[in-house]
Amino acid sequence: MQLLKERILKDGIVKPGNILKVDSFLNHQMDITLINEIGKEFKRRFADCPITKILTIEASGIGIACIVAQYFDVPVVFAKKAQSLNLDGEMYCSKVESFTHKKVYDVILSKKFLGPEDHVLLIDDFLANGCALLGLIDIVKESDATLEGAGIVIEKGFQNGGQKIRDMGVRLESLAIVDSMTDDSLTFRE
Q1: In the 8-state DSSP scheme, what is residue 189?
Q2: What average pLDDT does range 94-122 have in this prediction?
Q3: Distance CA 147, CA 46 (A)
């Protein structure tokens, strides 16, 4: 997706430790015009799938997932990273290690929002080592829903997450795959 790549080159900031900051347009401040185009692109790429639910993980994926869901006309559900008083009933649970935060989370989702009748598209902003997606895949498996695929806005192709997910046979569509990052340059896979 050329529009996204151009925006990453213009406004993305590379930080030490293979961190790509896109917080000015994707995951802190959100450029809704750009995210709307991202939503259209995921709809185009997964148009052949009978999607009934979009599943993401809090927090950065939620806004993107909501825009994508508009194009599929389906609900968004998201796995939470913390138990709260307003969560009740039976839960799906998976452990997820955050690349950015260097922390392991128990991610949870109420069983009432995902079941065997669902056809799920996973959506997230980044894919690095694949831990978040693996956690969401575990939840989909536990629910007996059908996993139709995963849509990622930015994949770090030089890390192993994308390969892990593809090796599992999951359909993975990444809109921009960064092949390498240095302080002064980014290269994308074509």
Answers
A1: -
A2: 87
A3: 12
